[in-house]
Amino acid sequence: MGEEFGFFIAGKWTTPKGRKTFESINPATGEVLASFPQGTVQDIAAAAKAAKDAWPKWRRTPPPRRGELLLEASRIFRQKKEELARLVTREMGKVISEGRGDVQEAIDFFEYASGEGRRFFGETVPSELPDKICMTLRLPVGPVGLITPWNFPIAIPSWKTGAALIAGCTAVFKPSSLTPLCAAKFVQVLHEAGLSPGVMNFVTGSGGVVGDGIVNHPDIRAVSFTGGVDTGRHVYEAAAKKMIKVGLELGGKNAVLAMEDADLDLLMEGVMFGAFGTAGQRCTATSRLIAHKAIYDDVVDRLVSRAKKLRVGNPLDESTDMGPVASADQETKILAYIETGRKEKDTLLLGGEKLRGGAYDRGFFLAPTIFEVDRKRRLAREEIFGPVLSVLRARDYEDAVAIANDVPYGLSSSIYTSDVRRAFHAMQDLEAGITYVNAPTIGAEVQLPFGGIKETGPTDTREAGTTALEEFTYVKTVYVDYSGRLQKAQIDTEKLVRE
Ligand code: NAP
Fold first, then answer.
1. How far apart are CA 267 and CA 30, in angstroms?
2. For residue 52, what are the contacts with CB-CB under 8 A and spacing of at least 6?
């Protein structure tokens, strides 16, 4: 049965009576970890009211003081790192070293965001008139909605919450229905760090009711959403109708370009990690490997022999390379893509099946899969979000870039080359929010902006880095005239010049 949880509203855990519940399940074993109530529109109203009531005080709390609370949260995350990492692995299925990485991002981002409280800079700008000073202030937009996916169940909530809170916003947070337990433990840490009641509120339940309810609630002034393109499109439309700010971090179809002068050992290390880390369920996962024709056959041989050695199994075992995929739905969706590859006559080089027998039968384990794919096929163009790598052949650098850019997504990208000029061209030619040189498509650091273009990031917002605050703040322009008389900008300037 596992632990039973409620909502966290106005600083209290509340369990609504007689409510339908849903369960959080370990994808490696089928074990039930916890149960959560299905939220309703009334629950959203209560959470939004708490966030609205708490906002005036939080907004006036000086940013460095807000930062102290975030730093305390970072310290608690550090203290609980192993416990939370094991929970990430049990609830989501990524291997334990990656579970630790998930929590480390929370430690790092809360620490980074706390410092932003002392760097909440505006500008001072000269006036065209005498005895007048002009400046900009950065101010919080108000109570915000935070909606997150399951693949980084601690890290993604941290990126959103750390930025929203340091900006002076209060929040209503809805996690993925696959990973509510990590989210609940995350909220407990923030509470322990000393946030005032109502600053952070937490409601679980389906996307269609709770997610939609948050976006459409009149008191929610901005929404930060991470998830798939289809859901993101819906959120974008709803936010546009309400005329509110929205940040969208959506899917990807990330490519590694392997040039004829690439270090192939380094390339193999990077592609294994990028394609099969987190069982390919990262928005930045390496989903395509585009290899120059001169090295193509060698690359394919090496890939297959390397991927064959990956150990798939219990994600809590330190020697496991790849755990299960996150849910039955995930498994079904990925197997359907593998079937599509077969039907479209892509060449299956490795895997392509559900693993069976022994402990595999209790969870959602898939074999690392590699297809040789034609550039126009679905496996070359659509996000699979699983341990399936498509390999494509390119005639030259220009052709490789054309293939890489010929998808509706634009999140991460990478080039392996030893030609520095080509690397600099690629940084500008690849249509993506992120480009790595001689490194895989994954590996974001919190002090840099993170996000995409095209359908991945239609709102052009960036999480993390100094850009993180933009999602949750607006710029106020202030003019202070200390001349003691009426001065008319644009009109009086002309006169002054003539005098
Ligand atoms: P998803 O199905 O789009 O769900 C994301 C979140 O939206 C969940 O909390 C979901 O709730 C909620 N939701 C569902 N319907 C909604 C609605 N009508 N209104 C508002 N919210 C709604 O995505 P996912 O399967 O969790 O995550 C995988 C996707 O996320 C992939 O496409 C991946 O590329 C993308 N992703 C992108 C980034 C990035 O930074 N670009 C990072 C990580 C993941 P329920 O769980 O209750 O349905």
1. 36
2. 142, 143, 170, 219
pTM for this structure? 0.97
Exposed, middle or buried, 446 (CB in 10 Å: 0-12/13-18/19+)? Answer: buried
Q: Which atom of ligand 1 is nearest to the CA of 231?
A: 3
Q: Is residue 255 predicted with pLDDT exceeding 60?
A: yes
- pLDDT beyond 80 at 78: yes
State whether residue 306 is helix, strand or coil: helix
Pocket test for ligand 1, best of 179, 226, 331, 382 (most atoms within 8 A of CB): 226
**Exposure pattern of 65-94 as b/e (b: 16+ CB <10 Å)?**
ebbebbbbbbebbeebbeebbbbbbbbbbb
Q: Is 249 in the pocket of ligand 1 (CB under 6 A)?
A: yes
| Active-site position among 249, 383, 455, 463 | 249
- pLDDT one-digit tens code per residue, 79-116: 999 999 999 999 999 999 999 999 999 999 999 999 99
Across the chain, how many H-helices and E-strands are there? 15, 20
Closest CA to 330 of 92, 2, 157, 38: 92
Residue 433 in contact with ligand 1 by CB distance below 6 A:
no
Q: Containing H/E element for 411? A: none
The catalytically annotated residue of 72, 91, 283, 455 is 283
Instruction: Return the pLDDT at 497.
Output: 58
How many C-beta neighbours within 10 Å does residue 280 have? 23
**235 within ligand 1 shell (Cβ under 6 A):** yes
Nearest to 253 by CA among 457, 462, 456, 461: 456
Name the strands in the sheet holding 171-174, side by side, starting at the edge strand that comes first in the sequence: 12-14, 7-9, 200-202, 171-174, 144-147, 222-226, 245-249
128 a catalytic residue: no
Cα 57–Cα 62–Cα 65 angle in degrees, nearest 5: 105
109, 162 contact by CB (below 8 A): yes
CA distance linking residue 389 with residue 371, whole number of Å: 6
Strand partners, 345: none
Active site residue 249: yes
Residue 229 Cα to ligand 1 midpoint, Å, equals 8
